[in-house]
Structures are given as C-alpha cells and as structure tokens.
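Cont'd.
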Amino acid sequence: MENEKINELEVDLFLDAIFRRWGYDFRNYARASLNRRVAQRLTITGLKRISEMIPLVLHDTDFFESFLTDMSVTVTEMFRDPWVFKKIRETVIPKLRTYSRINIWHAGCANGAEVFSMAILLQEEGLLDRCQIYATDYNNKSLSSAKKGIFPISSMKAYTNNYIEAGGKYSLADYYRTGYDSACMMKALRDRITFANHNLMNDGVFAEMNLVMCRNVMIYFDRNLQNRSLKLISDSLVPRGFLVLGTQESLSYSDCNHEYESFEPKERIYRRLAHV
Amino acid sequence: MYDLIVIGVSAGGMQALSTLLPALPNDYTIPVAIVQHIGTNNNDYLPSYYSRICQLPVSWAIPAMPIAEGHIYFAPPGYHLLVANDSTFNLTVDDWVNYSRPSIDVLFDSAADVFQEKLVGVILTGASSDGSKGLRNIKNHNGMTLVQDPDKAEVETMPRAAIEIVGVDKTYSLKEIKLFLNGFVI
C-alpha cells in the first residue's frame, strides 16, 4: 500500500472514531478541504501520524472540540460580497416587505459576521421589528462567540468599505460600540437574533422560513451531503421563499433544482416555486 | 502521460497566460487548474477574457464537480482551490495563506498528494513567494516542476523564490514552457 493510500485510510478511521464517539459525521465532507484541516490539526499536536490522533479524539474532550472548531470555522467578513447584499436590498427586501412576519435563517453562521450584516440591512429597511432571525451552527464555541457580536476593531475598516458598497444608508459605526480593541454590535441587533445549535447533517426542520442564507457551507460537502442538506432547507422554505447561496455555489447540479427559479442568477439568489 | 497541470501566477500574469493558454489545441486532453492572484470582485473577468482567446473551454472551478478533460479552470477570487482524490474540485473560505486566497500553495499541495508523478506544476511571474512550498511538494512526489526564468519574467520575485526553495536546476522561457505543455521535449 502506498503512503497516500495509508493516509486516506487513517483519515477514514479518524472520522469513524469521531462519528462513533461523538455522533458528528464528517464522512460526507469534501475530502480535499477536510484533509487539509486534519493535516493542520496534526501539525498543531506535534504528532506524526493521523491515526495517533484517534486516542485523543476518543478520550480528550478539549481535543475533540478544537477539531470541531477547525471544521466549522470559516474566515468571512461582514457584508462579504457586498454586491450580493446590495441585490438582496434591491430585489428581495421588497418581496419580504409584503409579509407581516418574516422568518430568516442563517444556516452555518460561524462567527456571526453575516447575520449581523443582515440585521443591519433589515434595520435600515425598517423590517427588523417584523423579523425573527435564526442563526445556527453545529459548533457551540462559534455560537457563543457569535452571540456576543464582538469583532476585532482591526476588521472594521474593511467591513465599513463592504457596508458602503452594499448600499448602506448611514454609517456602520452607528451599529457598534468600540472597546479597547474590539467592536461590539448594538444590543438592539443582537436581541433580534436567536442563536441555536443545529446540524445540517442530521437535524430537521425547526420553523418555516421566508429567507434562508446558506453561503459557503455547501462547498465543504460532497454531492450526497449537499443534496441532503439542500432538501432540509427546501422543506424549511415557504412557497416563494428565498434561498441565497455562496457566489460559487449553485443548485444546477442538485436534486432540488426543479423546485426553484433562479431569481438573481449572478448573486445566486433562488426562489422556491409556488408549487413543486 | 500527465493527468493535471497546475499553474501559479501573480503580477504580470495576464501577459504570460495569454501566451501559454491560447497555444493549447482544441483536442488537448489534460485539464489545467490555475491560481492567478487578483482582487476579489464581482465579475467573471478571468474566465470570460481567456475564453475569448483560448481554443479550450475556460471557467471558474466548480465545487464538487468532476475535473473535465481539456478544460481550463481558474480558482475563483476569495476561495482556496483544492483537488480531491475523487478528481473533483473543492473550494474553501479557510484562512489566507501567504496573504492570499486563493493561494497557489494550497492548490499545489492538494494536487501533489492526489496526482503525484502525473502532475505538472508551473510557477510564472509574480511579486509574492506563494507557490514555492507547493512546488517543492510536487517535486517531492516526483511530479514535473517548471519555473519561468526570473530574468525573463515580468516580475521576478515569485520564480526566484521557487528556485530557492525548490532547488530547481533549470529554468525555462515562456516559449519552452509552451512547447512542453504541447508535448515537446524541452
């Protein structure tokens, strides 16, 4: 057996151990990005072989939680892809405005940068009071950090540029208070967001949504897991509800493509058909 | 003979790639995956520009989709591009590497693991040192490594860094790289 094959086998065993010990199933994750994260964790431990991390993941809760964080943290920013937020403001918001109650779900919210961007946008459009925003992630560490709404002050310059490009009406600084080296999002925004643990891999529908934001989550999944989680999202959306994917993600090759129309193709905004 | 070509290029890249890519004939079978450092933006400039001048189809790499023969793929801005062992592309929004996302090292490392001696890695003009470690990894897996002659590159930093870290004993002109990609011995 050549080395690369043995490596693959070690990763398989490591993932099996995680699944059987903790119930988290990463076996349907896109393999190259997963391998890279496993290799990075291996480097941090100072161990030589992936299989040497199996005892750690079985017996050491802290080690497992670190790995969970490796797997769920993405490096994103507020108003990432500002043109997408601009388009949501211009074309999706007018449709949402017709509802008296609006449910919005950020699936895979990581550090919360995106969900706070959405809350700001909704506030500026006068819709925030009518909205219930759910932000979910399978990593409790991410959730508790997102819940605080604290971002490094050093990021705010880039976020401010994005905010302006996204069609922001006032000043991003209106929405946070600065501390020593951090920016804390206003309580009025935080209060509108419900942070909850939810795992797209095996949890179910928990509310009927008018808009689902699920950007740059599918890229980490293989085709099977993509289809499974997209089905869950579809089942959560009301007829004519919206789904926003990452700018390099698409429904074109998925099982549920026929349930949607492409509402804003370039921004990857889809709208569920009235009858499917 | 080779299953994949990976190219890393930064400053000065438009000109270099405009020499190499249009020379690949329309019956070319080896797929090509490229990381070209550009700013994040909302246009399809790279694929649409190269589509116009190339005989082969050009597009962004699509996550979880199989790598097709004779297709030129670019890493989309803001994402790392990786190759998985089921011959599909993966994209991530993981942390920046060498101040870059996409990073050449990330593509080269993953491709080296999967394609080993069936891989060609090319480092062209650029003002960063991204790609050097990845190219060394390709060499360690017995893949073919080509570095543009820094004296002839528009910006010499990136090829020079690659020479130093990889320890290549020979560099190539764009013309020689073009010949090699077209199946000639150089």
